[in-house]
Amino acid sequence: GRESTVRNRPGRLTDLIAAAIAHEAGTVDVAIFNGGSIRIDDVLPPGPITEYDIIRVMPFGGKTVRASFDGELLARVLETGMNNEGLGGYLQSWGARRDNGVWLVQGKPIEPSRRYTVALNDFLLTGAETNLGYLTRTSPQVHDVVALRQASSTGCNATSVKAIPPSQWCRRYTRSKPPTRRSSARRTGSPRRPPR
Predict the structure, then answer these.
(1) What are phi and psi of 139, to 5 degrees?
(2) Are 94 and 24 in contact (CB under 8 A)?
(3) Which of 25, 13, 129, 40 is nearest to 81 (CA)?
(4) Rg of the Cα atoms in the chain
(5) pLDDT-based confidence at 23, cuts 50/70/90?
(6) Strand 30-34 versus strand 115-121 pairing type
(7) Around 48, how many Cα atoms within 13 Å sit in the side-chain half-sphere?
(8) Is residue 56 within 8 Å of 40, Cβ to Cβ?
(9) What does the alpha-carbon distance between residue 166 and residue 172 come to, in Å, rounded to a whole number?
(10) Please, which residues have CB within 8 angstroms of residue 145's CB and are 6 or more apart in sequence?
(11) Rounded to 5 degrees, what are φ and ψ at 75?
């Protein structure tokens, strides 16, 4: 979850979040989200992920959205996201990659006239992200927008590596309050303080 990673390149955490967004949306070609939505600049230690960890990573909540994008728009969005390197508007993705200057979706070059099903966080469709002012729900190249899930007030909007649906993940792996200093020290392997 280091800022130097999430705003510049894919990493294990960003891959996990992108896969979770894709899973939540069902059958999609691509999932994207802005690296700036990850607000932690820390490394999560090995072990169970808590609700507190999720809130630290993605505190804004919001909705997961599924939409159809014309291929021309999808390629433009992906290119802009890549050019936003170092900024919060750097786009993390699942199902898309750039190879020799060509954007591929599911291993095939993007066809400008084809429609692609895209899963994304709702913020990206506001036009408020850096250099993505053209990406809005009302764009003529955006179709069939469906909001899938409102993140809870606690931020439970992530899933595990095994792609368990977010609603089940939160029930299985969260606790009702943040860890105490003592339990946090044990998780990170830091030495315990002697009793006073």
Answers:
(1) -60, 135
(2) no
(3) 129
(4) 18
(5) very high
(6) parallel
(7) 15
(8) yes
(9) 10
(10) 65, 66, 67, 125, 137
(11) -65, -40
37 contact partners, CB below 8 Å, separation of at least 6: 58, 60, 62, 88, 121, 123
CA nearest neighbour of 179 among 167, 170, 187: 187
Alpha carbon 37 to its chain centroid, in Å, reads 7
Closest CA to 30 of 99, 87, 131, 103: 103
Considering the entire predicted model, what is its pTM?
Answer: 0.72
| C-alpha distance across the termini of the chain, in Å | 34
* Complete DSSP assignment for 4-16: HHHTTS--HHHHH
Length in residues, the chain: 196
Q: Are 1 and 13 in contact (CB under 8 A)?
A: yes
Which backbone phi and psi does 155 adopt, to 5 degrees? 85, 15
Question: Rounded to an integer, what distance in angstroms lies between the CA atom of residue 135 and that of residue 46?
Answer: 37
Task: Summarize pLDDT for 105-160 with one digit per residue, the tens.
Answer: 999 999 999 999 999 999 999 999 999 999 999 999 999 999 986 543 333 444 33
Helix (H) or strand (E) holding 67: strand 63-70
List the alpha helices (DSSP H) in the chain: 3-6, 12-25, 51-57, 71-83, 166-173, 181-188
